[in-house]
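Title: Comparing notes on inverse folding

I've been comparing how different people in this forum approach sequence design from structure. To keep things fair, I'm posting one structure and asking everyone to reply with a full sequence. Here's the target:
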């Protein structure tokens, strides 16, 4: 990666301190960083800090003497523009095309051959507000790369989505936008143009069509009860949101009670295993998808029959009484993940499968991943262990295994989404369908530690469930 000129714009959020960590790393990477700070941003971070980090005077006031044309000149100077943190106020101002400060004027003067990244940071209510939702969509449509937000506890004490993602993730996005190999750019209308040899936009190719499955299936026992799991579909919904933010055209096929699709993501629902299977066959056979991210918690078993006081009864009807002696007969469901390519009208479909284990050691986890590769011929398997996942703190360690035997350890859902987006955008198939034996060799480029154990695509899968997800 060559040294680049980075225009780094800070706005008035408490997350400004995290932006300083990003700036520091960019400077250490050898980049020239010019900071712009709104008046509100300077309430959070002093000019001395920004100047000390970058060795350059921070710019804030459009009317500073001797800098009259900087709202144009800085656009010409920069290779990439980053707004971090981006407040609700700034997002909505930019979306309205207002230019009454330097950040707004620079945005209107932006040269769309250059990447423009924006890392939102705000309270969940501000993030969920229709004005902000509309602003984000408008900016995205103009070619701004909106980085995802994180979920968790905010400085205000509220909990939810809106927290700025971590410096490492922002750095990864900036580095990607500077990757010398990428040449595709997005114009304000979203059309792609080729710009050889200069800085670039993120790896995710716009308009890749991705199908994400999420949530748990429900198998009817009687007319009011089901066999299911605790999957919330949160991970799938978050992956869908991130993939959408990275420029993909996303369909979220989710359990009917699971987390609803985020803005800009098309949604479909399923209840039973049979529903999910039917929907997968219909969607993959009827439409072109580039990839499936199969994060749904699919029941390994269907309810094949009931015995009530020794008498056989078909499942799914009536209501079983409380005084009866009931036996439930289970029959194994087929593995949907094994059939995705066969159902797909796109023979090049990329398949990302998920493997959940529970308190498995490294060897057991790896064996489970190998087994999944063997029968599914997936391009990648996301593995995590229920024991390592913490729904309260949002901790979500996972390992992304590729079919060529390489792996990446990931600490959060955001990092996982980023890794999957990169994988989907990558033109190299990376050994899709490679024999599972490749996994028994040494990992060729080990980017992270060996898997610590089992994996949970959905942190809320029922730890007490007798069956494991059907992968
Ligand atoms: C302590 C404090 C923290 C704030 N944090 C945020 C924040 O994280 N995100 C946000 O959108 N606004 C936040 N605000 C409100 C903005 O600072 C305010 O809307 C301001 O006008 C933004 O101006 P700017 O977008 O020009 O920087 C905060 C305000 C205060 C007083």
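Reply #1:
Here's my take.
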């Amino acid at each position: 990666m060559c040294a680049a000129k980075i225009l780094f714009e800070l706005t008035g959020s408490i997350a400004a301190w995290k932006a300083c960590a990003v700036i520091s790393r960019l400077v250490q990477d050898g980049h020239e960083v010019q900071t712009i700070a709104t008046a509100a941003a300077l309430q959070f971070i002093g000019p001395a800090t920004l100047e000390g980090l970058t060795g350059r005077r921070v710019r804030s006031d459009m009317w500073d003497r001797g800098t009259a044309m900087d709202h144009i000149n800085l656009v010409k100077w920069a290779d990439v523009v980053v707004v971090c943190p981006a407040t609700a106020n700034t997002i909505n101002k930019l979306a309205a095309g207002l230019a009454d400060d330097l950040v707004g004027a620079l945005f209107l003067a932006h040269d769309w051959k250059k990447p423009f990244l924006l890392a939102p940071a705000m309270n969940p209510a501000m993030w969920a507000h229709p004005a902000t939702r509309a602003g984000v969509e408008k900016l995205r449509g103009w070619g701004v790369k909106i980085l995802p937000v994180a979920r968790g506890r905010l400085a205000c004490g509220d909990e939810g989505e809106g927290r700025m993602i971590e410096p490492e993730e922002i750095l990864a996005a900036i580095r990607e936008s500077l990757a010398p190999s990428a040449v595709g750019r997005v114009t304000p209308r979203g059309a792609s143009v080729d710009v050889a040899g200069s800085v670039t936009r993120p790896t995710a190719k716009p308009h890749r069509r991705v199908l994400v499955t999420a949530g748990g299936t429900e198998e009817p026992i009687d007319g009011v009860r089901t066999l299911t799991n605790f999957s919330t579909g949160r991970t799938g919904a978050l992956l869908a949101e991130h993939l959408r933010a990275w420029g993909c055209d996303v369909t979220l096929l989710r359990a009917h009670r699971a987390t609803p699709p985020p803005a800009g993501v098309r949604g479909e629902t399923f209840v039973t295993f049979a529903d999910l299977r039917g929907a997968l066959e219909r969607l993959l056979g009827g439409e072109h998808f580039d990839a499936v991210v199969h994060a749904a918690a699919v029941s390994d078993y269907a309810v094949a029959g009931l015995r009530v006081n020794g008498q056989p009864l078909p499942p799914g009807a009536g209501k079983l009484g409380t005084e009866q002696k009931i036996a439930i007969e289970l029959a194994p469901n087929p593995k949907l993940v094994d059939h995705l390519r066969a159902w797909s009208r796109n023979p090049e479909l990329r398949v990302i499968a998920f493997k959940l284990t529970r308190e498995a050691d490294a060897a057991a986890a790896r064996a489970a991943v190998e087994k999944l590769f063997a029968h599914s011929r997936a391009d990648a398997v996301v593995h995590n262990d229920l024991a390592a996942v913490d729904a309260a703190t949002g901790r979500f360690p996972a390992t992304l295994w590729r079919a060529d035997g390489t792996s990446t350890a990931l600490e959060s859902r955001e990092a996982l989404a980023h890794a999957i987006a990169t994988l989907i955008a990558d033109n190299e198939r990376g050994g899709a369908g490679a024999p599972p034996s490749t996994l028994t060799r040494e990992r060729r480029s080990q980017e992270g530690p060996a898997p610590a154990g089992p994996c949970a695509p959905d942190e809320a899968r029922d730890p007490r469930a007798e069956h494991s997800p059907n992968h």
